[in-house]
Specification:
single chain; alpha+beta; M1 Pyruvate Kinase, Domain 3; three-stranded antiparallel sheet; 7 helices; globular; pyridoxal phosphate binding; molybdenum ion binding; catalytic activity
């Protein structure tokens, strides 16, 4: 398909891992805007860190993107918060304009700056968001609303800067928006035919294992530890 401009980058952000919320916990969720252009490699944005590499970072979670338009909706729902006053509140590396979970699909290939990215998965929100926003159910709110953000792997390293267009290079799974995946995972999570359909998608290994376990057990996994801490 021809390249189509579908959105733009508002800010490029990075953070350092620091002690967070409870003894022994680290987080780099507090991201700050980078000046100029930033190098992007297969493991992420230059200068960015992850607090818990068991759940963050790696080639399939190299870059986290979040729609800046969601910020206004969050302020309407939970009131003003310092973390909602500027991009980076959700730990995103790229704050975007014009695209979100309803308009992007699993497997979309995107050109941003001189880099090429591929959407690998949606975000599974965790308890650290509750502390970040001083809202005890914030992680559940992200999951329930579908305003989770999404991850990309890096197909072609390059550099990205604020103001860059987001161009759609390919859309192999147009029927599988990120919003539809969120609904399937969290609201219709035991519908067998739907799970079998999802299993045919190019899922990351952790999501595939989750689907296979649901198909085998007929039960949903317990989300309380991830969402509530």
């Amino acid at each position: 398909m021809d390249e189509t401009v579908i959105g733009s980058v508002l800010a490029v952000l990075a953070g350092k891992a620091v002690p967070y919320a409870r003894p022994g916990a680290l987080s780099a969720i507090d991201k700050h805007a980078r000046n100029g252009r930033a190098a992007v490699g297969t493991l992420g944005l230059e200068g960015d860190e992850q607090g818990d590499p068991r759940y963050h970072g790696g080639p399939h979670k190299a870059i986290h993107l979040y729609a800046f338009e969601h910020y206004a909706r969050w302020r309407d729902e939970i009131g003003p918060r310092q973390a909602l006053s500027h991009p980076g509140g959700f730990g995103e590396n790229l704050s975007t304009l014009g695209v979100d979970e309803r308009t992007l699909c699993l497997g979309d290939r995107l050109a941003i700056g001189t880099a090429a990215l591929e959407i690998s998965q949606g975000r599974q929100p965790c308890w650290k968001l509750n502390h970040r926003f001083d809202q005890r159910d914030m992680a559940r709110r992200l999951q329930n609303t579908g305003r989770t953000g999404w991850y990309c792997r890096v197909l072609q390293p390059g550099d990205i800067g604020a103001g860059d267009d987001i161009r759609l290079l390919a859309r192999p799974y147009p029927e599988w928006t990120l919003a539809r995946l969120v609904e399937a995972f969290y609201r219709r999570g035991l519908e067998r035919e739907l799970l079998l359909e999802i299993a045919r998608l190019p899922l990351v290994e952790s999501w595939r294992a989750l689907i296979e376990k649901r198909l085998e057990s007929g039960q949903l996994e317990d989300w309380s530890r991830r969402l509530d801490g």
